[in-house]
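Why Phytanoyl-CoA dioxygenase family protein? Reviewers of the renewal asked for a concrete example.
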Amino acid sequence: MTIDINQPYPLLEAQVAQFHRDGFIKLKDVFDARALRYYGNEITWLTIALNTQKTPLAERSTYDRAFLQVMNLWEQGGLAQEFVFGKRLAGIAAALLQVRGVRLYHDQSLYKEPGGGITPAHADQYYWPVDSDRTVTAWVPLQAVPEEMGPLAFFAGSQSVEFGRDLGISDDSEREITANMQAHGFRVVDEPFDLGEVSFHLGWTFHRAGPNRSAQPRSVMTVIYMDRDMKLKAPENHMQQADWEKWCPGAEIGAVIDTPKNPVLFETMG
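Here is what the prediction returned.
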């Protein structure tokens, strides 16, 4: 079976403007049911096979109750690599960031088990040793995500807020960031995802997710993109140091993150 995930997705100028205003956007019909089933079966199988979390749900930390996660599925080759390297998602990422090309930072599957807890409020870029804000995460549900499954929720316009950028995912981040977002009056967009709907959010956009109160797992694949010309910065915390070593090995501070683990996935013509 051949399914094309490289066809361009028609973005409107108004959608790009919305993304820059809100720090995120949800796009309908990025993939159809057939493509999600075809690639999703492999992604789900790999997530279950490669997951190392064995602690019972009730005994885990808040972070570990949020989801099972497996990183860089693309390195397994086959359908997982084909999906992560797809030009449809990467082209949207480049258009939204308004850059000439995007590289892979890393991918990760996020599998929120039935009974899985909240994903506390946070901004992804806390973890990343990169020197600009030209980063975006594509959040791709492999099924529809009704409210009871814990869809990703965003604090619209929060990408310019400095407070909370030094907080990793934790009970503290949920409490402190949520309180700050409420104090500033940021609109919370917490809505279901239709089948085929995909969200894109900037690295500094604050977001969270509710618990999975359904009897089914919430299976999601994410791909994190960065500007093709992104440079490595000196790590500002131990998580950024760990990310440098794991996801950008061999990259040098002040130089473009051009390593075998960070291939260019899309470039504009000309």
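The chain has one domain: 15-230. This is the kind of structural detail the renewal will allow us to pursue systematically.
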